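User: tokens in, sequence out, please.
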């Protein structure tokens, strides 16, 4: 019932946003800058903000009001939290059971949805108070990794190369497709992209951190995906952010990876952070049209 009301609220908010953007002539204004039109993008830091260094970040998501929520992992430490962006501290925290390893999150209307890693469970929390409403079995994919929504469907990754599309509320599987990049590979085949992790819906695209953990690799790149076809649209090279963290993180880059993308469309703000990072960054992307698939193959450390 809560999620049904949330879907209705999400639809009303979307309609309100369009109405707000309408110009006098009846057209729809572009609030934020469009996504980069090049295959490879880089970034510039707009704000360097504190983040809780104890937080093993598995998911970030904004609600419509601009409140930032985070899902943290590790057994006996997993939780969902509302974050004060300016200080990095928690304003509300709901802990998971000690046997739960928290994973990706998505906000749909008045509901925060959280995955678990290997527990095969999904959790629904009411917003803004983060009261646990439902715990449900979820037997889709090998594990729970990334989660995002476009307001109508949920998108999930599981550590492999697949993208799963789910119906909210019932969590019925609607579609499964392999995430592939037509610009990479040998020409005859498109390279599958393994380990797409934390997900976020950005300008009509699905963006994901990449962590080919089971291939023994870690990446500082973000992949941009067409959610309908699972085809890769492009890449964001975020190298350099991990190197700005404290020595505990930089000495163990495989464990404390870049993980966490949050985009607030009404204000065109994007934030990124990582597992146990002490900093979070508001960034703006810069197109790099001179860079192509050779750059991605050489720096993104793909599985």
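Assistant: Sequence out:
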């Amino acid at each position: 019932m809560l999620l049904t009301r949330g879907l209705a609220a999400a639809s009303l908010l979307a309609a309100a946003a369009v109405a707000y953007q309408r110009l006098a002539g009846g057209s729809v204004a572009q609030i934020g800058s469009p996504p980069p039109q090049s295959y490879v993008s880089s970034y510039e830091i707009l704000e360097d903000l504190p983040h809780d260094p104890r937080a093993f970040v598995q998911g970030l998501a904004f609600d419509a009001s601009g409140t930032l929520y985070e899902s943290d992992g590790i057994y006996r430490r997993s939780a969902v939290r509302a974050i004060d962006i300016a200080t990095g501290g928690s304003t509300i925290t709901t802990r998971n059971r000690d046997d739960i390893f928290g994973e990706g999150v998505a906000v749909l209307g008045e509901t925060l949805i959280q995955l678990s890693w290997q527990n095969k469970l999904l959790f629904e929390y009411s917003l803004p108070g983060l009261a646990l409403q439902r715990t449900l079995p979820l037997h889709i994919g090998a594990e729970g990794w990334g989660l995002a929504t476009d307001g109508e469907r949920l998108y999930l990754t599981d550590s492999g190369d697949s993208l799963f599309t789910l119906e909210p509320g019932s969590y019925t599987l609607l579609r499964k497709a392999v995430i592939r990049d037509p610009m990479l590979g040998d020409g005859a085949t498109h390279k599958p992209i393994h380990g797409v992790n934390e997900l976020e819906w950005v300008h009509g695209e699905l963006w994901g951190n990449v962590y080919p953990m089971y291939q023994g690799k870690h990446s500082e790149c973000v992949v941009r995906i067409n959610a309908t076809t699972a085809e890769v649209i492009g890449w964001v090279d975020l190298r350099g952010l991990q190197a700005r963290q404290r020595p505990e993180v930089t000495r163990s880059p495989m464990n404390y990876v870049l993980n966490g993308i949050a985009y607030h469309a009404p204000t065109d703000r994007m934030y990124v952070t990582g597992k146990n990072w002490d900093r979070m960054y508001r960034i703006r992307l810069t197109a790099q049209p001179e860079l192509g698939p050779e750059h991605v193959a050489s720096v993104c450390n793909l599985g």
